[in-house]
Amino acid sequence: MNKIEAIIRPGKLEEVKDALNKLGIHGMTVSQVIGCGHQKGRTEVYRGAEYSINLLPKVKVEIIVSKKWVDKCVEAITTAARSGEIGDGKIFIYPLSNVIRIRTGEQGEDAI
Amino acid sequence: MKSKLMTILVLCLATLLMPGVAVAGETTTIDAGDTSFILVCASLVMLMTPGLALFYGGMVRRKNVLSTIMLSFIVMSVVSIIWVLYGYTLAFGPDIKSFIGGLDHLFLKGVGVEPAGGTIPHLLFMVFQLMFALITVAIISGSIAERMRFSAFLAFIVIWTSLVYAPLAHWVWGGGWLMQLGALDFAGGTVVHISSGVTGLVAALVIGKRKGYGSEPILPHNLPMTVLGAALLWFGWFGFNAGSALSASGLAVSAFTVTQIAAAAGGLSWVLSEWLHHGKPTVLGCISGVVAGLVAITPAAGFVGAMSALVIGLMVGPICYFAVAVIKTKIGYDDSLDAFGIHGVGGTLGAIATGLFANLSVNEAGANGLFYGDASLLLKQLIGVGATILFAALATFIILKLISYFIPLRVSSDDEVIGLDISVHGENAYADSYDFPMGAANKAVRTL
């Protein structure tokens, strides 16, 4: 089992969700986050004073899948979230030791 | 000793409870139209201070919005009480050596519903002037927001209102030396705006920059709130300027009209300035320019015509923009919300512009300015500006140094980082976490 964490553009969330749904993956956790990478940020001006905003708003999508689905998921997210410009985001993949469904007590892949 | 104190206390109470006895003035009849008009104007001017609270509140960080709003509201409470106890008489009591008013109206003695030299009740004139004192003191809070200790601010406003505002109001409006000299200030260019702006600058310099100023972004947290505050200020300003005619007259209509023109021109010229300078026309710039236009027309409102107001408004936008966008950055002082950059600079420009554009055809009680053939008014205006700046700056510096011997002027470094809303007032403006179910993890403690 793996956890896939994708930091993407806020405007790409719907496309990423659709792409994952097509694979049959419906469970996900989505959060609004801010961060910085290669993207340089933007400038805001208040009463003539310029401020450099380095931490930009992004969306973090977290999904849990069994090992055989990891590549397909990564491919689906990459295709859906890509604009080709700097700031498209990153995908992190973590090994996962266990998953427990609280309602039933199921564990492991049964709980995904 | 105890009985002596009791006697003094009883005498004070007796004076407080005495019904107001009107002083016989030059005019003895009350005009219902004038009275109702000034009642409405006084209400409009009152609304400016809560408007300023929102204007300022939106420009600070979310952790300081309540503390910033609080500064304006506490001013309304404290200064109102000072004004009726002794502030009014110091400003408008019988002249003592051209410097200060006498104590004839202490505790509003002799201030009743009879007219005193006009067509409105003396009490109404007193309360109209009270509203001016409120907004003046509240403006200062924009320079020291996000870092001044609340108790030190309270001490400051009590002393400043007594020792700076009241004498200044007397000099210009209460029969003092600037009035005798012939300097003009229709609705408070020197008394309200230069004095508060300069005071704010000195206070910002004495108290020091906010933590992180210049190294991390300190951004407005809610510009729509600031826009709402600016809208209330603009609305209230009609009472400020038109009401200063003290009658429902042609002069009031003229002042009302030039107020609108200058505000509009100020907003436009600021936006054009920043558009050229930074490439984007911002909302904050637009409303800042409107306020600058309102400030600049204030001293001239009852003395200049419509086209002069247009020129004054067009001039003030770029000048105030330059003050806050270039000069402030170059010199490096932290006037948090630009009380000096807009009120100090705009008020100075307005007072000087009065000396240029004043026209006797607008107001027979005024004078002609330089462009209408009389250069002497400009000199008088410059004397008024210089005296106000010097007096306000020096007195503010001394008052703050004096207070700092007893109370630290700014909050602790930790409290500043946490934000004054929680560290000073124990409140949170946007308690998101408590609305979320996770808030249940926090134990509710009620002590009654």
Automatic annotation (TrEMBL), chain A:
Subunit relationships: Homotrimer.
One Pfam family in the UniProt entry: P-II
SUPFAM superfamilies with a match to the protein in the record: GlnB-like (SSF54913)
Gene3D superfamilies in the record: 3.30.70.120
GO biological process: regulation of nitrogen utilization
InterPro entries, per database record: N-reg_PII, N-reg_PII-like_a/b, N-reg_PII/ATP_PRibTrfase_C, N-reg_PII_CS, N-reg_PII_urydylation_site
Protein name: Nitrogen regulatory protein P-II
GO MF entry, a single one: ATP binding
Family statement: Belongs to the P(II) protein family.
Domain of life: Bacteria
PANTHER family recorded: NITROGEN REGULATORY PROTEIN P-II, NITROGEN REGULATORY PROTEIN P-II HOMOLOG
One Gene Ontology term, aspect cellular component: cytosol
Keywords recorded for this protein, A-Z: Nucleotide-binding, Phosphoprotein, Transcription, Transcription regulation
Modification type O-UMP-tyrosine: residues: 51
Automatic annotation (TrEMBL), chain B:
SUPFAM superfamilies documented for this protein: Ammonium transporter
InterPro entries: Ammonium/urea_transptr, Ammonium_transpt, Ammonium_transpt_CS, NH4_transpt_AmtB-like_dom
Membrane topology, as annotated: Multi-pass membrane protein
Any one of the GO CC terms: plasma membrane
GO molecular function: ammonium channel activity
Subcellular location: Cell membrane
PROSITE patterns: AMMONIUM_TRANSP
UniProt feature coiled coil, ranges: none
Entry annotated with the keyword Cell membrane: yes
Record NCBIfam families: amt
UniProt family annotation: Belongs to the ammonia transporter channel (TC 1.A.11.2) family.
Name of the molecule in the record: Ammonium transporter
Organism of origin: Desulforamulus ferrireducens
